[in-house]
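Hi R.,

Here's the chain you asked about this morning:
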Amino acid sequence: MPTVPVARREAAGASGKPNDPFTAVRLLARLCMFGRAPWYRKEMTTSRGKVIVITGASSGLGREAARQFADRGACVVLAARRSDDLEETARQCRSAGGQALTVVTDVSQESDVEQLAETALSTWGRVDVWVNNAGVTLFAPLEAAPFEEHRRVIETNVFGAMLGARAVLPIFRAQRRGVLINVGSILSKIGQPFVPSYVISKFALRGLSESLRAELAEEPDIHVCTLLPFTIDTPHFQTGANEMGRQPRALPPMQSPEKVARALVSLAERPRRELHVPRVAALGLLAHWLFPTTTERLLLRALRTWHFSDAPQPSTDGNLYEGADERGMRHGERPPQIGTPGFAAWTLRELVRIEVESATRRLRATRSAS
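And the predicted structure, written out as C-alpha cells:
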C-alpha cells in the first residue's frame, strides 16, 4: 500500500477523503494558531548588547522596562524630564547588570529629541530599539478643561512619538534594521469617557504605527510595533492633570508594570505588529464591535461608579508641563476600588439592567407608535 504524506493524511481525515474541507480548515487553524505557522514565525533575538532608547523612563512602565532590558545585558538610553529620577532608574539598571546613559528630554521639543538620538548614536554607534513611552493624562470632559491642557496631552503623547520616529528612522534606514515600539493602550481601539485627549492621542499612536509600517514595507528588518496594555499599576492616576474634582482610581483588572514590561521586552526581541496585554483584553474589543451601544453604556456606568473615588482633588495640571513633584516610582498609589471578581459580578448585573431598560424602551416606543 503506497504511503501518504503526514500533512496529506491529516487533511484527508478519518474518512480518507483529501477534499474534506472541515479537516483541512482545522489543520490550517492548528498551524496558524497564535502565529505559530512556520511561514509566520519570526526568529527570537536577544537584548544582550543591544542599544535601547526609552522615553518616559523616570517612573512606571518606562523605569521597569529599562530595568528588565538591563537585566538582559542591554545598553539603555534613558529619557525623561526629571534628572534625579532618571539617575535613579540608571542606578537600578546598572545594578541589574546593564549599561545606562541618561539624557534629560522633553519629548515635545524637537531639539531635545534630536539630541537624544544623537547622544545614543555617538555613544554606542547604533540604535537597535526605540521605545516611545512618554505620555501624560488629563482627567476631564472635553469642554470642562482649558483647551491648552488638551493640547499639551496631544503635544506630548502624539507629537513626542512623531518626533521620536523622525529622529530614529534615518538611523534605522542607514543600519537597514531596527525596532520602533509605540506604547499605546487598549484605548487605541476603543473610546472612554473623561479622558478624551488621552484617547485621541492613543488612537493617533496606532495610526502612526500603521502609517510607518506601510512606509517601511520594503524594509523587512525594520519593525514598527504597538503595545496595547490595559490598566497598569503606575503613578499615572495620581500625577495626571485633573479637572474632575475627585481622585481617579484604576479599574480592574489592574496589571503590574513588571508584567507589561515583560511584554514590551518580548516585543523588542520578537517584533509583532500589535500586542495586547493581557491578550484577553481583545475580547472586550470584540464585544464593542458586536454590541457597540450596549458596551458604551456599560463603560460609561463603570467609569462613573468605579473610576473616581469620593475623595476630593483640587484642580491641577499635574505633570503636563513639568515633571511630577513626587519622586518617580514604578507602582502607583491609586488601586481599584473594587476587586476583579466583584467588578465582574457588577458588570453582569449592569448588563442585565441595560438590556431590561432597552427592552422596556422599545416596548414603550412600539405602544406609542400603535
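The mean pLDDT is 89.

Let me know if you need anything else.
M.
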